[in-house]
Design brief:
It contains five helices and no strands. It is mainly alpha-helical.
Length: 133
């Protein structure tokens, strides 16, 4: 159990490191767009693997290694970055899908009633009033 908690902590730290880089944020926003436009959910794994490999090969993480040393050491392993980016892309995809759902509900909601409700027509009684003199 302790190892699982440590692993989750390490993943959260690595996600924070990747968000400090622009590339992690770009991957998250791209996945949110995928979810918003209803692209197939299997693309989450594909994009996560691609982003993990690109980050491992081309993104320099030396400027943030002093902040979280253990997570930075774990990020040196390409397989770990694939897991991290799959999680980032997964959350982005779900966030985009929820955003689409929220916007469609907002559009489908009936218009709010106006400030003053329309007055009901009042009928006058004919001949039922007081006699006039």
């Amino acid at each position: 159990m302790v190892k699982l908690v440590r692993f989750l902590g390490l993943i959260i730290q690595s996600i924070l490191i990747e968000f400090m880089h622009v590339f992690g944020l770009v991957a998250f926003l791209g996945a949110a767009a995928m979810g918003y436009f209803r692209l197939p959910s299997w693309l989450v794994v594909v994009v996560g693997v691609i982003c993990g490999v690109i980050s491992d090969k081309f993104v320099d993480q030396s400027e943030v290694t002093g902040l979280l040393e253990r997570a930075a050491a774990a990020n040196q392993r390409g397989g770990f970055l694939v897991i991290v980016y799959t999680i980032i892309v997964g959350f982005g995809y779900v966030g985009g899908a929820y955003a689409r759902h929220w916007i469609s509900q907002k559009k489908a909601a009936p218009a709010a009633p106006s400030a003053s409700p329309p007055k009901a027509s009042q009928k006058r009684k004919k001949g039922g009033g007081a006699p006039s003199a």
